[in-house]
Specification:
Oligomer: single chain
Order of helices and strands: HEEEHEHEHEEHHH
Largest sheet: 3 strands, antiparallel
Strand order of the largest sheet: 4-7-6
Structural class: alpha+beta
Radius of gyration: 17 Å
Mean pLDDT: 84
Distance between the termini: 51 Å
Strand content: 5-15%
Helix content: 40-55%
Shape: globular
Low-confidence stretches: 1-26
Number of helices: 7
CATH topology: Arc Repressor Mutant, subunit A
CATH architecture: Orthogonal Bundle
Amino acid sequence: MEKIGYYIYKERKMEACIDAKLYKTIGMCTFIKMEYLVANALVELYENKKIDKISLASIQNYGIKVEKVLNKSGTQAILLYSSQYTKEFLQDYSDYFTFENNYIKIKSGVTIDDIRNHILSYVSVDILLALLDENSLKAINVA
């Protein structure tokens, strides 16, 4: 194959066709987004320990664990975590969460069912299983 043809083939092969609803690529990678990490972490913390906030450092550690669990199970996963993703998350989900002193907190009046129905109901099964994996939950001191 010619060099130019090879690079075009390689680029196309690596392109991700993202399912806009599940944020899962077809045949390539699964993207782990902030909303899934924060929502599930806070649901687990609240239900198990009545804690309604989580630090950004804990979210990052949780995301790393979830990524490792997915990769170990054969699903190529990429953690989408940065200050930009955090800002976008806080803007997009300001009806559910507030940000104070490096902690993301469940907003007053928001229920766990609200978070489940409006955020976690869109999580693909493979991500959900990784979010609930015992090794992942250890990162947020729930397991």
